Amino acid sequence: MTTLTIRLPDDTAERLKLLARSRGLSTNKLVEELSARALAAWDTENHFRAMAATGNVQEALAILDRLDAEDQRKS
């Protein structure tokens, strides 16, 4: 495991401590969880970008049109 030192404004660090405490976590565990979420979002974005680079634009637009039509029927 790696130790990472980061610099944060005092008010940000204090708010993170309060958030961690409110969730029953250590600040370290909170930052670990938030980092995991950020990395998952980044991985998902990269996955979709890779799919888009090899995908069929017309087919993708047709899917979005069907989804929009379905949403409008539900409203």
Automatic annotation (TrEMBL):
* Entry's Gene Ontology BP terms: regulation of DNA-templated transcription
The record's Pfam families line, in alphabetical order, gives:
RHH_1 (PF01402)
Q: Domain (Ribbon-helix-helix protein CopG): give its ranges.
A: 4-34
Query: This chain belongs to which protein, by name?
Result: CopG family transcriptional regulator
The organism encoding this protein is Ectothiorhodospira haloalkaliphila
Q: What SUPFAM superfamilies does the record tag this protein with?
A: Ribbon-helix-helix
